[in-house]
DNA sequence: ATGCTTATTTGCAAATAATGCGAACTACAT
DNA sequence: ATGTAGTTCGCATTATTTGCAAATAAGCAT
C-alpha cells in the first residue's frame, strides 16, 4: 500500500477526510509484514490511541481494501488477515506459530492443471503449509524472517506428499 | 472417502456405533462433489430424516475428518466446506456461482518459489479463482458443468497476469 | 426378547468474527 | 466561527461453530 502521506492525498481526492484514527491505521499498516487481523491491528492501535473503536478499524480496513491498498486473506478459517502488499504474491503459513509470510512464485504459468471444462482462470492463489525450521543460531523463537531478506529460491517439494492429518476444527491454541 | 459399507466396518472396529444419522450422512457425502457446508448437508439430510440435528451433522463431519475420510476446506471465509475426496488435489472456485471444483495439478514440484529461509514445505494448496465460461448454447444461466466430465488438461495463464517485480514502488514510498 | 452400559444425539448457551444502524462527533471548506 | 457531510463509536444482530449436560438408543450379554 502507499505511504501514509500518499494515502492522505488519495483520500482527500476522493472527498474522504483525514482523521487521527485513519492516520494511525495507515502508519500501522504501512510496511507491516505481520499480516494482522482486524483484532490484532486494533490492539496495536489501542496502545497509541486508547479508545479507538474496533468498529473503526474494521471500517478503515474495508475502505483500504476497496481502494486496492491492501489485500484480504482468508487463511485457516479464522479471522481475515490483511496484507499491505498488493503485488502478485502468495503465502507460506507456519503450522506451528501461525505466522504468515509473503512468497513470490516465478512460474505459475507453467502449472499443468486439469481444470473443469470452460473454466477461465482469473487468478491463482497458492499457500505453502509447513514450518520454519528452527535452526539453533539466535533466540530461534524470535528470529524474524523478512521476506525481503535472503529468501531462497527453491523448487517446491513437500516432505511427504501424503495426506496430512487434519485438525478437526479451527483455532484452539490454548 | 470410503463407501458407507466400508465406513461402517471401520467405525465398528473403532468401537463407534452405527446410527441412522451416521448412515445417512455417509451416504450423502459419498461421492458428493458439491463440497457442501455443514448447513447445506444438514438441509439435505433433513429432507430424508426430518428432525436430525445440525449438531449431529457437525459432529459427524468432525469425526470423519479426524478419521481422514474427508477434507476441510476454508475457501472464502464463509462456512467450511467438506470434501470426500482426500486425494492430493486442489480447487477451482467460480466467482459467479461460488461453485467449487476439484482440480488435479501435475507438476507442483516444479514451482519455483522464494520461500522464507528455513521454511519446510509440508503441503501446498492451490486455488484457481475464475469463472465457468457460459457458452451461449442453452439457457446459459442454468448450464451445469460437472467436474467428472472432460476435464481439460491445460497450462494456467490468468487473463491479465502482469508480472510485477517484487515490491514495485508506486509513487514515493516513505 | 430383556436389560445394561455407554456411545450418540440433541437442544441450548456461548464464543468468535464481522456487519448494520443510528446518534454523537468532527474535519474542513467557506 | 459556522455549517454540513463524512466519521467514529457502541450496541444489536447475523453467521459459524463449539461446549455441555440431559435424554436416547446401539449393540453386547443373558
Describe this structure in words.
- 2 copies of one chain form a homodimer.
- Chain A has 2 domains: 4-73, Orthogonal Bundle (Arc Repressor Mutant, subunit A); 87-158, Dna Ligase, domain 1.
- Chain A is an alpha+beta fold and 174 residues long.
- In chain A, the strands form 2 sheets. A 3-stranded mixed sheet of chain A has the order 4-3-6, with no helix packed on it.
- Chain A has helices spanning 4-13, 20-29, 38-48, 54-66; strands at 71-73, 81-83, 90-94, 100-105, 112-115, 119-132, 152-155.
- The interface between A and B is large, with 73 and 76 residues.
- Chain A binds a DNA duplex (30 and 30 nucleotides) through residues 15-19, 21-22, 37-39, 51-56, 58-59, 62, 77-80, 169-172.
Major sheet summary line of chain A: 3 strands, mixed
First CA to last CA of chain A: what distance?
A: 34 Å
> What's the β-strand tally of chain A?
7
| Major sheet strand order of chain A | 4-3-6
- Reported by name, the CATH topology of the largest domain in chain A is Dna Ligase, domain 1
pLDDT averaged residue by residue of chain A: 84
What is the helix tally of chain A? 4
Q: Supply the CATH class of the largest domain in chain A.
A: Alpha Beta
Low-confidence stretches of chain A: 139-150, 160-174
Work out the radius of gyration of chain A.
19 Å
How many discrete domains of chain A? 2
**CATH second-level architecture of the largest domain in chain A:** 2-Layer Sandwich
The percentage of residues in β strands of chain A lies in 15-25%
Could you say which overall geometry of chain A the principal axes of the C-alpha atoms support?
Answer: globular
Report the structural category of chain A.
alpha+beta
Looking at how many chains there are and whether they match, the oligomeric state comes to homodimer
Order of helices and strands of chain A: HHHHEEEEEEE
Work out the helicity level of chain A: 25-40%
Largest interface: A-B, 73 and 76 residues
